[in-house]
Amino acid sequence: MAQIQKLNSNGIAVRATQDCADDWSTLLTRVGTQRDRQAFERVFRHFAPLIKGFHHSRSTQALNTEAADELVQEVMLKVWHKAPSFDQSKASASTWIYTIMRNCRIDMLRRNQRHRHREGDIDVADIWDEALENQPLLFLQHKRNERDIADGLSALPAEQSHILEKAYMEGKSHSEISQELRLPLGTVKSRVRLAMKKLQARFVR
Amino acid sequence: MIRHHPDNNLLLEYAAGSLARGPSLVVAAHIQMCADCRSHYHSLNCLGGSLLNQSPAQPLKSKAFECLIARIDQTQEKITDLEKPARQPDLSIKQVPAMEHLPKVLNKLLEKNPSSKWRKASRNLEVCRVRTGQREYEVAFHRLRRGAKLPEHDHRGPEFAVVLNGSFSDHNGIYGPGDFVYREPGQIHRPIATQDQDCLCFSAVAAPVAITGISGLLLNRLIPFRPG
Asked: Containing domain of residue A109, as a range?
C-alpha cells in the first residue's frame, strides 16, 4: 500500500504508519474543492504509473507504450477537470479513477476505428454514467469493501483471476477471451461466475 | 418489483467496458431503473479499482506531468463552454405518455436522434429506430398495444431488451417495468402485452429477427434489419 505524507491539524507533516489507501480520496477531494495543484501532482505521481501498468506491462500488452502514455494523459486530464464532482462518500479514489480510465479507453478505441458511425453517437459518459444517485457508502465501509475485494482477488485461483484481468485490463469480451485461450465459452463464463461468487461474499450490497 | 436482471457475466463485461455499445445501452437503462444492479455494478467498478491498485507501476514518458499541466492551462477555457446545458430538442417521439419518464441514458440517446419517429410495423406494433453510432446492433423502442400478441419469432443473434412501461409475457415469464430480457438465437418466443396498458420496450438485436409462421413473413418485410 502507498505511503504518503499526512498533515495533522496544524498542517505539520506526520508520517503515516499503516495502510492509508484512502488518503488518496482525501487528496483527490482537495484537488476538486481547492483546485490544489500540489495535491494533484501527488495523485498523478501515484496513479499515472498504475494506469500505464494496467494497460502496458510485462503481463499485459493491451496497448503499446505510446498508446498507454497517451491514455494516461487523457485520463489524468479528465481527473483534473472532473475532480470537483468526486464524492468520497460514493466511491474511493481508485474506483472513481478506474471508471474514468475505462471510459477514456472506450473513447480512444472508438476514435481509432476505421469505420466510425457518427450518427447518434451518444457520449461514453452517458452510457457509463457514474453521476447516478447511488446509496452512499460510509467512508470506512468503502475502505473495508475495497480491501476485502483486493484480498479476495489475490485469493482466487490463477485461472479465475487471469480471466478477470483479461476482461478488465484488455477489455476483452467473454467470447474474445474464449477464442484467445481456446476455451469453450461456457468454461470462461463459469470461471467468471465462480470468481464472482467468491468475491460476492465480500461485496457490500 | 424487478425480477429479471442481467447476469453476472454481462454486468462484468459492462463494468469492464468490453460489452458492445448496443447491449451496453440496454444494460445502462436497466441499471438506472434497478437499485440492486446499480449497487452490484458499483462493486464491479470497485473490482476494477482494486485491479488498478494492483497494477505494476510503469515508468511514464519524460515530463509527463509537465505536459499535462501545459494542456490543463490550455484547455481551462474550453471546458467552461462544454458545461453549458444542452438544448432540449422538441421530440415528436416523446409525445407518447409512457416516454415521459425514461432512464437518463435513453433521454440522452433521444437528444442525439431528433428526427426519430414512431412507425407502424403492424396493427399492434409501433417501432422507433434510433441511431447509436454503431452498426452491429439494431437499437429501437417498441410499443406493443395492450393485449396484443406478436407473431412467434426467433432471433438470429442475441436480443437484449428492457421493459420501460407496461408489461408482456411469453412462455418464460412475465416482464414488467425495469425487467431485463435476454434471448439467445434459437429461443423462439411469442410476447403478449398485458391487458391493462401498452407495453414499451427498448432493445438491441444483433442480427435480423426471423419470424416464424405466415404472419411472420409479412412482419419481417415490415421491419427490415437496419442497424445503426
From this structure: 1-133
Please indicate whether, in this complex, the C-beta atoms of B52 and A98 are within 8 angstroms of each other.
Answer: yes
Residue B141 corresponds to which cell in the numbers above?
423502442
Beta strands in A51-200 (DSSP E): none
Q: Does the global pTM surpass 0.90?
A: no
Q: What is the CATH number of the domain that holds A202?
A: 1.10.10.10
- In CATH terms, the superfamily for domain B1-54+98-228 is Jelly Rolls (2.60.120.10)
Checking phi first, is residue B133 left (phi over 0); if not, alpha (psi -120 to 50) or beta? left
> Which residues in chain A come in under a pLDDT of 50?
1-19, 205
Cα end-to-end distance, chain A, whole Å: 25
Phi, psi (5° rounding) for residue B131?
A: -90, 140
Asked if A12 and A104 sit in the same domain, the reply is yes
**pLDDT over threshold 60, residue B145:** yes
Across the interface, of A69, A102, A169, the residue whose CB is closest to B60 is: A69
CA distance A181 to chain B (A): 17
Reported as a single tens digit per residue, the pLDDT across B10-49 is 999 999 999 999 999 999 999 999 988 998 898 899 999 9
**Residue A13 pLDDT:** 45
Instruction: Give the residue from A110, A133, A156 where a domain finishes.
Output: A133
